[in-house]
Write a structure and sequence with these properties.
Two copies of one chain form a homodimer. Chain A has 151 residues and is α+β, with helices and mostly antiparallel strands. The first copy, chain A, is 38% helix and 19% strand. In chain A, a hairpin with a 7-residue loop joins β1 and β2. At the A-B interface, β3, α5 and β5 of A face β3, α5 and β5 of B. The complex binds manganese (II) ion (2 copies) and zinc ion (ZN) (2 copies). The site of one manganese (II) ion (MN) has 6 residues of chain A, from loops. The structure holds a DNA duplex (30 and 30 nucleotides).
Chain lengths: 151, 151
DNA sequence: GAGGAAAATGACAACAATTAACACAAGGCT
DNA sequence: AGCCTTGTGTTAATTGTTGTCATTTTCCTC
């Protein structure tokens, strides 16, 4: 079976680097999951199940358990961001330069999701953390609403 | 068995009124759940399981299924507010005059939760909804952080 | 105060999302 | 290449929540 990288073809990807300096390993499965997010473009919010489906369709079979494990890992590494937009589980999006810190407007009927940036909101999170002596990790504003099509 | 309200003692509670004009019924279970939130005071965020435990401890046994049903009902009626603060399910808090629209600062280690108000954040939600033509329902800012005790 | 239709409850099964266990496979250092 | 350790797939288990259904209760009408 052809493996993605052989010992003669050491690809030094950002993913590989991040993994190796932590005793972790670069696997085809991890690359497939990250590549999916990179190819699909920013602004997409996928569930574990959806990642699984998409990989199966592109004949890159990765088990669902591994997808859950990989999503958690990529979040820990700071490459993905975990969202709680709706019922029915978490969603994940690529963290990248052209996808800055932003917030979400969600239609509670159809799930349509729009993104927006707001400096004041980020500041509000910083201030709240500081006042209470907390160390800030992240702040996320979720706006629940009904989209034009669903009214 | 003594029932909470007999036909001779019709209590016209706000809860009863709200229910009756909708073809729904005032039951001891619904009163117990709402009373729990009213007695515990505002600023408390309880899970369904915690509501269940507290009612069992106060020898007011209500089945867990009924608690889930009742929490959903009270949210629909606008008496409770549903929160997604942490892993492990939803939490609920009383909506009242002395508990205005506010946001949450959550320690990801121990779960300690602080509340804060911020007008700019509410405005940001309104603006985002308006710009996209959505009908606003609510906006909630969750700030994930680490509290002083957990650093 | 009964009688009765409709709604609610409790007990329990089913479900969906996620995690755990473990035998086997594969990555990466030497 | 060989070895050690990490990762994967399969499957079972957990957790939070909802569905089913027989029984009970509310509340409207007389
Ligand atoms: Mn996004
Ligand atoms: Mn609160
Ligand atoms: Zn919609
Ligand atoms: Zn803490």
């Amino acid at each position: 079976m052809l493996s993605f990288s052989s010992q003669y073809n050491v690809i030094t990807s950002p993913l590989g680097d991040g993994l190796h300096k932590d005793g972790k390993r670069l696997t085809p499965q991890r690359l497939k999951v990250l590549n999916l997010f990179e190819n699909i473009g920013s602004g997409k919010h996928l569930s574990a199940e959806e990642v699984h489906e998409k990989l199966v369709k592109s004949s890159s079979k990765v088990s669902l358990a591994t997808i859950y494990r990989t999503l958690r890992l990529l979040v820990q590494m700071g490459l993905l961001h975990e969202l709680e937009l709706s019922e029915g589980g978490h969603r994940y999006e690529l963290l990248s330069n052209d996808n800055p810190d932003h917030h979400h407007l969600i239609c509670i009927r159809c799930g349509r999701t729009e993104e927006f940036e707001n400096e004041e909101v980020l500041k509000a999170g910083k201030v709240a953390a500081k006042i209470n002596g907390f160390k800030l990790i992240e702040s996320s504003l979720n706006v629940r609403a009904i989209c034009p099509n669903c009214i």
